[in-house]
Structures are given as structure tokens and as C-alpha cells.
Amino acid sequence: MTDQDQILDHLRQLFHEKDMLMNGMTDTPLHAFHKRSFETLQQARFPDKKHEDWRYTPVHRMMSPPYQIAGSFAGIPPQDIPGLDTLIIPVCNGKISTADLDPKLTACGIRILPLQKAFEDSSWINVFSSLTSAKTPDSNRAFELLNFSFHSHGFFLDIPPHLLLDTPIELRILHADVEPAFSHPLFFIRCGVGSRITLLERYDHTAALPGKTTEGMINAHGFIHLDQNADVRHIKWQDLPSDQHLVYKLIVQQMRDSRFESLAFDFGGAMVRNNVEVELEESNTYTSLQAGYIAKGTQSMDHQTRINHKVPHCESHEWYKGILDERATAAFNGKVYVHPDAQKTNAYQQNDTLILSAHAAMNSKPQLEIFADDVRCSHGATIGQLDPKALFYLLSRGIRREEATRMLKTAFLTAILETIPLEPISDFIKERMASAL
Predict the structure, then answer these.
(1) CA separation for the pair 97, 28 (Å, rounded)
(2) Roughly how many angstroms between the first and final C-alpha of the chain, as a whole number?
(3) How many Å apart are CA 199 and CA 263, to the nearest integer?
(4) Would the pTM count as exceeding 0.90?
(5) Out of 127, 136, 217, 393, which could bridge 245 as a Cys pair, Cβ 3.0 to 4.6 Å?
(6) 227 contacts 254 by C-beta, under 8 angstroms
């Protein structure tokens, strides 16, 4: 029996046990969704190093532990971000507690529906049903199908048209259990015409209670749809415990005149895989993906992006910056597709990496596939060490080597850190990441 077969056999056992606990819900659309997804997963199987997009993600190491389905949360949640008022949606071990939701969410007209009810809601069906329908088995979608098969409490956030929400919505996603387990947060967000929100996704360090463990994997998937003229500022912060893995995928759809700006910061975790896919469905959209990350020890961080320019007059920018030390490994694979009809496209892509150890490794592959002739597109990548001249200059001014090195590393990430829009979030992330430099 191959390693892949052993993993799938274990998942079949877990899925059967999950089915036994459905308590009369086996005939619901939600259960049919679970079952259809798991059947497709078994046909697709998990990717290996022969799959180009997964060459640098240790899928077998990530999936080989005999995970259990996460039960009740058994950890200590992190503190609130000082000076920041947010509308918190807590997702603990993949489960959302409706009793703990901030009442201000519904007071301002936002609807929150469990996925079971969303399947019957026209607002969800119109934009998301095609994304979750059964497709030809594809191993690139294996973790997405795994999420669809095992998620516990997927939910739908419906932002009403023309809502200008000044207070950020915080998805606080945490994991801790009595034994090594995996959890599968799943969310769908539709931003109505002319709406504007700030969304903070927070995957933060938790402390396990005595006799419990944070070891395991979070397999999180999110979908965001921006209707015409909607504006979303998205900030993702990840500082998971050193014994947790993270597989993260975000799919974004943008309609005419919409604006999506994403800032992602990764610091913690053992093996981390980030996928961001953006579908530009109508003209005059703006997309920005920026990220800063630090990896050390034996951490593995893999960033995969895809921006699909389907129509004319759209603009996209990507800038990923990372610092690797000790025996850490990382990868960046950015893809920009410009379709034949997508004239007047403006697309920029850049990946910069600072390597501090002879044992660290970075694999960078920015890509452009252009099938239109009236476009402005560029991409690039740099991989290097600390500037010896800059380091010498600081040392010659009496600054200790350790402090001089820290200053140069901070300066490397400053261009990304300075773009964080809200001061309390900016101060929080800068302080936490500075502690790792």
C-alpha cells in the first residue's frame, strides 16, 4: 500500500465516522455537498512533487500524521489587538459560535448564514454555487475538496449594498485540541454594490490548556465576491504555533469598478501553503496583492498566486518580500494570465527575498502568460544577502552587529509594513514581526 493510499484510507474512516454523527441530516444539501466532494477527492488524490505547483510543498509530511477531526476548542485565545475595535467572528477548530458573534454585525445590516441555509439563499447561489459544484477530479484542488468534505460550520457573510463599514470585521481563526487534529474553516463573503469593508483574517498563536495540544493542521478556504464598485481592504496575519501546519486558499471574484487590496503577513507555523486566486470578471478593476514573511528553523512557506485578466482595462500589482534564515525553505510561484480580449491590461509582479543562511533555500518563479498585444506587463525576482556595504556603514558608526543586522532586515520589510492602513494593526504586526528579526 502506498503512502497516498494510507492517507486516503484514514480519511475514509474519518468520513465514515463523521457520517455516523450527522443525526438525521444525511439527506440535506449540505451532506450531499460533503459526500460529492469526498468522492471527487478520492479520484483526484493529493499532489506530489511531480505536480509543478506543488514541487516545494511537502504534502506527504503535512498529511501523514493520523489526524482526527477537531473537537471542541481546547486552547487559550490570544488577546485583542491593543487600540483596535473590530467586529469579531470567532472560528475555533473550524467551528463558528453564533452565540459569540458581535451583535453590531447584524445591527448594520450584515447577514450571517450557516452554509446549510446559504445553499437555499439566492444571494449565495448566484455567485458561489458554480465554485463549489463538482468538477473533473484535479489534484491541485485536493485540499479544497478536503475542506469541502470535512468542514464543520461553513458560513456566508452577506454585506448589503452601499454599506460603508468603518469598523474592521475580524475572522479570528484558532486551533487547539486534545490530540493532533485538523480543522477546516470555510467562509463565503459577498460584498454588495458600492460597499466598503476592511477584513482582518487572524491566524494567531494560541496556548494549549494542560493536557491539550496545538499540534495539527488548519485547512482554511475563503471566497470573496465583489459586486460592482465594491471596495475590500484585506489583511491576513498568521503567527501559528510551531507545531501547526496551514493550508490556506482564497478565491476572489471582482466585478466592474471594484477594488481589492490584500496585505498578508506570515511568521509562524511549521509548513505553510498560501494560495490566492483572483478572477477579474469585468472591466476597470484594481487588484493589489502584497505580502511580507519571515521563515526560520525548518519552516516551509509556499506562496502561490494567480490573477486571471479576462477583460480589458484592469490593473493588478503583486509584491512579495520574505526573509529566510537557518534551514528554512520558501517558494513563490506567481501567475498572471492575460486573455486575448484583455486589452489595456496593466500588470506588475515582483518577488524579493533576503537569504541569511547558507542552508536556507528560496525558489522563485514569477510568470506572465500574455495573449493580448496592447498591454503593460512586467515581472521580476531578486534573491540576495544583506548588503555588506550598508552593514559596514552601520558598524563603522558604532552600532553593534546584531543591532545593525536587525535594522537592515527591518528596512527590507518596511516597504510592505508601511502600507498597513490602520495604525493599531500596523503597530501590532510591526511589533510582532520585529521580535522575529
Answers:
(1) 21
(2) 44
(3) 10
(4) yes
(5) 217
(6) no
Whose cell is 536556507? That residue is: 360
Contact 325, 295 (CB under 8 A): yes
Distances in Å between the Cα of 199 and the Cα atoms of 113, 290, 430 are 18, 15, 18
Tens digits of pLDDT across the chain (437 residues)? 578 889 999 999 999 988 877 665 667 888 889 999 999 999 999 998 889 899 999 999 999 999 999 999 999 999 999 999 999 999 999 999 777 788 899 999 999 999 999 999 999 999 999 888 767 789 999 999 999 999 988 999 999 999 999 999 999 999 999 999 999 999 999 999 999 999 999 999 999 999 899 999 999 999 999 999 999 999 999 999 999 999 999 999 999 999 999 999 999 999 999 999 999 999 999 999 999 999 999 999 999 999 999 999 999 999 999 999 999 999 999 999 999 999 999 999 999 999 999 999 999 999 999 999 999 999 999 999 999 999 899 999 999 999 999 999 999 999 999 999 999 999 999 999 888 88
Integer CA distances (angstroms), 271 to 22, 163, 215, 217, 247, in order: 32, 38, 12, 9, 8
CA 256 to chain centre: 24
**What are the distances in angstroms from CA 37 to CA 32, 137, 347?**
8, 10, 34
Whose grid coordinates read 509594513? 417
Distance (Å, whole) CA 200 – CA 435: 21
Measured on CA atoms in the order 115, 118, 124, 130, is the torsion positive or negative? positive
Q: How far apart are CA 271 and CA 269, in angstroms?
A: 6
Q: How far from 266 is each of 25, 50, 88, 94, 416, CA to CA, in Å? A: 38, 26, 21, 20, 12
Please provide the size of the chain in residues. 437
- Contacts of residue 136, Cβ cutoff 8 Å, sequence gap at least 6: none
For residue 390, what are the CA distances in angstroms to 98, 270, 387? 53, 32, 5
The answer to whether the CB of 19 falls within 8 A of the CB of 39 is no
